[in-house]
Amino acid sequence: ELNHKANQLAHYLQQLGVKPETIVGICLERSPEMIISLLGVLKAGGVYLPLDPTYPDERLRWILADAQVEVMLTQRRKDAKEEGRVVCWDADGEAIALQSIENPISDVTAASLAYVIYTSGSTGKPKGVMIEQRSLTNTITALQQQLGISCTDHWLAITTIAFDIAALELFLPLIVGARVILTPQTALVDPLQIAA
After folding, report:
1. Which pLDDT value is given to residue 141?
2. 56, 98, 91: which is closest to 72 by C-alpha?
3. Distance CA 102, CA 116 (A)
4. Edge-to-edge, what's the strand order for the sheet holding 113-118?
5. Percent of the chain scoring above 70 in pLDDT
6. What gap in Å lies between CA 160 and CA 101, rounded to an integer?
7. What's the confidence (pLDDT) of residue 47?
8. CB neighbours (10 Å) of residue 146?
9. Which residues lie across from 180 on neighbouring strands?
10. Which of 56, 119, 128, 177 is 20 to 30 A removed from 162 (C-alpha atoms)?
11. Which residues contact 29 (CB under 8 A, 6 or more apart)?
């Protein structure tokens, strides 16, 4: 089901012109749509730019402009931090659901970018770091082998998608069919809720 939904989004994004090296901003709360968006962008062949919706608007706008984002994925139109091509789950969800569930075809190679992530920036300005497909794949595969993650595991995802460890928290369990548990935003500062 997750694969089908990611495929539908990928086809929708490809119709909007997303292809290798197209940067797609993802500014979503912690939700299934967040994971579908990450996978959908990758499946379309694009490059995802993870954005934390709790960041100040000024920082988000600066990152979007610096990265030259071509498409933005949000939950609601009012969440968009820029004009341009904005895909909103609330408004565009039905159109996305009409797309094919088949795996899309793209021209992605191992050297293609997978995502761009912005550091806090030692100079006071965030800096974009570009991660290739092969780097992401090699890291996740090596950790899976080293940690022995299997389909029977449950993996707690607590990190904001705007921090690079989130890619491991989300993709590592998925490559083996393990369960990803998205911690609600409200539970992140409460150890008792996290344990529950």
Report:
1. 95
2. 91
3. 26
4. 85-88, 71-74, 23-27, 47-51, 113-118, 128-132
5. 95
6. 28
7. 98
8. 8
9. 155
10. 177
11. 53, 75, 185
- Shortest CA distance to 156 belongs to which of 111, 102, 196, 189? 196
**pTM confidence score:** 0.92
**Residue 81 clears pLDDT 60, i.e. is over it:** no
In the block, residue with structure tokens 């539970």: 187
Mean pLDDT of 171-182: 94
The number of beta carbons lying within 10 Å of the beta carbon of residue 153 is 15
Q: Tokens in use for 26? A: 């993802």
Using one digit for the tens of pLDDT, what is the confidence trace for 97-115? Answer: 999 999 999 999 999 999 9
In this structure, the chain runs to a length of: 196
Judging by beta carbons within 10 Å of its beta carbon (0-12, 13-18, 19+), is residue 63 exposed, middle or buried? Answer: buried
C-alpha pair distances (Å), 24 with each of 13, 94, 182: 9, 20, 22
Q: Are 126 and 120 in contact (CB under 8 A)?
A: yes
